[in-house]
Amino acid sequence: MGRIKYYSIIAGVNGVGKSSLSGVLKSERSDMGYIIDVDNIATKSKTDIMTAGRIALSKINEHLQKEISFSQETTLSGFLTEKTCVTAKKKGFAIRLFYVGLDSLDEHMRRIDARAEKGGHYIDAADVERRYGKRFIDLRKILPYCDEARFYDNEKGFVEIGEYKNGELLLKGDYRPAWIVDLYELVK
Q1: What are the structural domain ranges in the chain?
Q2: CA end-to-end distance (rounded Å), the chain
Q3: Which distant-in-sequence residues (6+ apart) come within 8 Å of 24 by Cβ?
Q4: Alpha-carbon gap, residue 51 to 156, rounded angstroms
Q5: ∠ CA 22-53-103 to the nearest 5 degrees?
Q6: Exposed (0-12), middle (13-18) or buried (19+): which is 76, by Cβ within 10 Å?
Q7: What digits encode the pLDDT tens for the residues 134-182?
Q8: Residue 2: per-residue pLDDT
Q9: Cα(7)–Cα(64) distance, integer angstroms
Q10: Looking at the DSSP assignment, which residues form a beta bridge with residue 178?
Q11: What does CATH list as the number for 6-187?
């Protein structure tokens, strides 16, 4: 039997801490593979976000074709992640989701502003608001493909607050941020 190949999705709305969570996961797990992050590609290659997106898509396709484990940071907006899930499933990848959330749109914007003030990339408020408003719709499109899904809150550091198993969201611990309660009500 061959080694398990993973397609890991690190997801959440802009400003939630996906890149920080990627770093934590990479240090804790040896099976995350290459992490594909459009923002990081744009920064390192000193290119615009559209060009970085094309580079990221090329890297995703390369890893799928070579059947090598990889991770992708994403807001889940658009159709690319779902399309990648379909292809990954056909190729025998195990699909994992690591979703991170915050309770308020204002907190997302505050973090994006703070990042931009330090020289990081800025995301237009209208884009963030749109993604925040449909975050659970986008998430529910991906969940059926996932062999494993874990949910983290990042209000004061990453706290694992739930997991999705056999079509059911199971809450963990006593900490219940509003967003996970809202998601729980939607998927039960």
Answers
A1: 6-187
A2: 36
A3: 158
A4: 33
A5: 45
A6: buried
A7: 999 999 999 999 999 999 999 989 999 999 988 899 999 999 999 999 9
A8: 61
A9: 9
A10: none
A11: 3.40.50.300
**pTM of the predicted model as reported, rounded to 2 decimal places:** 0.94
Q: Which amino acid is at 136?
A: F
Rounded Cα–Cα distance for residues 77 and 36 (Å): 16
Judged on CB neighbours under 10 Å (0-12, 13-18, 19+), 159 is middle
Taking the CB of residue 69, how many other CB atoms lie within 10 A of it? 18
Order of all β-strands in the sheet with 159-165: 34-36, 70-74, 6-11, 94-101, 148-153, 159-165, 168-171
Tokens of 142: 């991906």
Place of tokens 């989701």: 97
State the maximum Cα–Cα separation within the chain, in Å, rounded to a whole number: 50
